Every structure is written in structure tokens, then in C-alpha cells.
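HUMAN:
Just now I want nothing more than another pair of eyes on a protein record. I would be glad if you read both lines and explained how they fit together. I have put the entry right below:
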Amino acid sequence: MTDLIVFGEDWGAHPSSTMHLISHFPGQNRVVWVNSIGLRRPRLTVADLGRVWRKVKAAFGPKAPRAARVAAPGPVIQPLVAPMAMSTLFRELNRFLLERSVGGAARAAGLHRPVLWISLPSAVDAVGALGESAVVYYAGDDFGALAGVDHDACLKLEAELAAKADLIFAASPTIAARFPAGKTHVLPHGVDLGLFGAPAPRPADLPAGKVAGYYGTLASWLDFPLIAQTARLLPEWKFVFIGPVGSDVTAEDLALLKGEPNIELLGPRSHADLPGYSRNWMAGLIPFRDNAQIRASNPLKLREYLAAGRPVVATPFPALLPYAEHIAVETTAAGFARALEASVDDQGSAARVARVAEAARLIAGLERS
């Protein structure tokens, strides 16, 4: 049995890779989950002030996690610390506050010499303050390119964390290349085949007919003009987008989607509900922009779409390469439209079996290099 203190995203806020991994650890592990320590300094905006207020309420309020279909593996802690602190004074203050709140919760839960699993560089000040036996850094994103974070500060803290970590897991080879090879391993995202590979009822709010869909945060890494242009070319199709709207999305980008009558924004859905959409729409979409963040990414939805068995249409990025024969890779709206029309004839069982087998091959550890 290994005791774990996990510094990840807010539990239940969205289906993060850290949440998936920890949820599948053996049940005898004792776990304390620490909600996210911000990756940028708050600004005087309504959104940031609201987030600060929610964090403060969570720090002093009940310790129950947000509602989620997957139960938290143990106590969920909201530490009250200064996000992205860089000065010696504030970092020492953060260490003290983390020892009090997180260390106190760990002792109350009976943890002894826990392993620190850290998924956010902003949690580096916890190292050495919690009586840990080892430190694991899970690098699931390129924090030098991730939208909505203080890139320079994140990279400085990440370098410090990588030096202190005993083991590093990286979600893609691009991310792994930044760290010492001797303690770094590439850990690409997997997929819950039992959830996404099984039949699921069609949700009531999924339109009938020809439907293409996307789930995930609507963020600046989406190619909004491409999406809008594709929707205009296919007026008889419905395009559904499931997920929250990111704070980095401009009003102009959002207006591109809302201005098309055949684009529907359904809002967030539970991760457990997503197979109902991906198994019942006609094709899954991954319309990413070409930028450094996406080139380093290894999106969860890629394998989940494949496991659901429907055709996938995507813009090109490196993580697609092992699956190229099962995905339509396009760069223009005209290409997306052609691929979606072709997907109407690609709903047969043989094609679906091939896509599900490709996702299963990942689970078996046989992903091509």
C-alpha cells in the first residue's frame, strides 16, 4: 500500500488525466487530493475575483468535493495559498500554509511518508514540507504554451520541480524531451474501454440526423473560423459542442459559433455521460489550431472517440500519427466538409471494430512509435 498526496486540478471540475489515473489506482491506497494551486496571478476581473472567492469559500467551508460521478479517493483539500508566488517570502508562507492544511489532512487520514504526485508546477513548494518518501511529477501539459497561464513563471517552477522529482511521467514525447532522460517516461493517455466501447442510449438533447460533435473545454486552441466555415458548408448538419467556455476565448471567437444556426453549445456534461454523445453522433471533431501547446498535446478525447467507434475528423497534430489510417486529417473547411460527408457511408461494423481495436491496442501497450 502506498500513501499518496495528489496535487491536481479541482476534483470533479472536469475529467482531467490526473483524476482518471488516480481513480484507477488500487483501492487500498490512501489518498489526499489537493485542489489546484493557480497557474497565474489573479487579475482584477470578474472571472478571476469570482474564482478567488470560490477558493476562499472552499478553504474555510465543508471539505466535501464538488459533485462528480467518480467518487473522490479520499479527503479533498482546498489550500489557501498565494498562486504563482515567486518571492522568497511568499514561497515560505506557502510552504507553511501547505504544511498546516495538507499536512494536517494527511495526518488525520493516517498517511505515513506519502508519495507526492504533483501535476501542476505551482505546487512545487510542497516538496520537502510534507514528510514525503518520494516525488512524482506528472507533466500532462506544455506549461510553456498552455493558454491562460503565466508561461515564464510556470517554466521556472517546473524546472525546479523536475530537478526535485524522483520520477517524471510526460504525456507526450515533446514534453518528455524537456526533462532528464534517466528519470522520465512517456505515459500517453489511455481510455476506459468499458465506458466508451459499450452501447449507450442517445441523449435527449443530441439532435437527430447528421450530427458532428466535440467535447472538451471551448478554449483558444480551437480553430473557431474553421468550425464556422465548415458549418456554413454543411447547413443540413448539426454541430454540437459539449463543455465549458474557457476564460481565454474572445467574444469574437464565440460569436463565430453562436452566429451559425446549425451550431449548438450544450454546455458541460459529466464524463460518464459523454459516451452517450460520442457513440450516437455521426462523427467526432478535433478542430485544433496549430500551435506549440497542441503540438505537445496528447488529448484524452482522441482515444475516447476511437473507442466509441465513430469516424473522427481532425486537424493535424503529432499525437494523431499512430492512428492516421483511422482518422480523416484535414486542414480546411472544405476538407472537413468532404470528410464529414464521407463519414455517412463509414458507419459500418467493420470500420467501427477497427477503431475500437485501435483504442484497445493502446490499452495493451502496443502503441506504434
About this structure: The two ends are 33 Å apart (CA to CA). Residues 4-186 form a domain with the Rossmann fold fold (CATH 3.40.50.2000).
